[in-house]
Write a structure and sequence with these properties.
The protein is globular, with a radius of gyration of 19 Å. The chain is built from 10 helices and 18 strands. The chain is an alpha+beta fold and 339 residues long. The relative contact order is 0.13. Strands 12-11-10-6-5-16-17-18 form an 8-stranded antiparallel sheet, with helices on one face. It has a 5-stranded parallel sheet with strand order 2-1-3-4-8, with helices on both faces. It has 2 domains: 119 residues, Thermophilic metalloprotease-like (3-Layer(aba) Sandwich), CATH 3.40.1830.10; 203 residues, no CATH class. α1 packs across α2.
């Protein structure tokens, strides 16, 4: 029997973001079914989403992960995957734990197979609900569309920062740019809050200074790393050298990007487009949407980008205050769009 959180106390300030998620981003219809997957740490946020679903009149199932499996998950519980396959819309709103990426990949495989409109709210918290989730997603979508149209014509993207980033991505017409602006379609599930365009680059070279955040479970542990940035030297799309004054972070990042043969390979090159995200808060879910560049090592979302290789890891790396050029045409200066 799926769970219910109707008796859960909910801060009224969460409802605008929850309303945005259900009605603007996922466009849930009264005739549609939705599956909400959450955990004990995210119960209040899940309860705010549940209230919007009930007000909409839609059929739904809600699952609190700890009631179905021991954390960290070794796989997504089959009862949840079976329920998910019956829905047209879904949300994952939970806190990640070490080693759980595989279970989320199982979940998104069902999402992709059934073309479910899926909102991925990994590590969601109250601050994100009050900031990034209150964006005008129709405006973010319009900006993202203008930017992705230019990106699809470019052969090279160059990005630099005053903090030491000097990085180039060579693009291929056979590797697609994807828009995930927060307006979610059956063709591509998206993170919420949304606001980015991304591709898998043909090749990358240069220096990328991570003075924002790193992703996956390392983000929860280290948060904003501006005081001890991670400098990554990339040659022919793979990590050549790593430097960081925080030796513990350095070694954990090195271990993560050594997991499989493609864990140290640049799988994603992305530009954030959510203009409601104005500052680093130490959470990858929102920080990767800040206007600027982030790259990720590992899994290249091959099913969407058309990339020809895979990895079982994926770790995002976010910097600050970028200048960006598409084939020499400047589209961002100091973190502000010029398009």
């Amino acid at each position: 029997m799926p769970d219910r959180l109707l008796s859960e106390p909910v801060d009224a300030e969460l409802q605008p973001g929850a309303h945005n998620a259900i009605h603007t981003c996922l466009r849930l219809q009264p005739t549609e079914r939705i599956t909400i997957i959450t955990d004990e740490a995210s119960r209040e946020i899940a309860a705010s989403l549940e209230r919007e679903v009930i007000a909409n009149g839609s059929e739904y199932s809600l699952f609190v992960l700890e009631r179905y499996a021991t954390r960290p998950l070794t796989g997504m519980p089959p009862v949840i995957l079976d329920d998910l396959a019956k829905s047209q819309v879904s949300i994952f709103a939970a806190i990640t734990q070490t080693g759980e990426l595989g279970s989320r990949i199982q979940m998104t495989a069902v999402v992709n197979a059934h073309k479910i409109r899926h909102g991925h709210m990994v590590n969601i918290n109250k601050q994100i609900m009050l900031e990034g989730m209150r964006a005008d997603f129709l405006a973010v979508d319009a900006l993202s569309q203008r930017l992705v149209e230019r990106a699809r014509k470019a052969e090279r993207v160059t990005c630099r920062t005053a903090h030491g980033t000097d990085f180039e991505a060579d693009l291929s017409p056979y590797l697609r740019w994807v828009k995930t602006s927060g307006i979610i379609s059956p063709e591509k599930w998206g993170n919420l809050p949304g606001g980015e365009i991304f591709t898998s680059p043909f090749n990358t070279n240069g220096t990328f200074v991570v003075d924002g955040v790193v992703g996956d479970y390392l983000c929860q542990k280290y948060g904003d790393i501006q005081a001890t940035p991670l400098t990554i030297e990339v040659q022919d799309n793979r990590i050549r050298d790593l430097r960081c004054d925080n030796t513990e972070l350095l070694e954990e990042f090195r271990a993560y990007t050594s997991t499989d043969e493609n864990s140290n390979r640049v799988g994603e090159f992305a530009i954030g487009t959510n203009t409601a995200c104005t500052h680093v808060i130490g959470h990858i879910l929102q920080d990767e949407k800040i206007p600027g560049v982030h790259i990720a090592f590992g899994h290249p979302y091959a099913e969407h980008t058309g990339q020809t290789w895979l990895s079982k890891t994926h770790i995002d790396c976010v910097g600050r205050e970028f200048d960006i050029w598409f084939d020499g045409e400047k589209v961002m200066e100091g973190g502000r769009f010029l398009v």
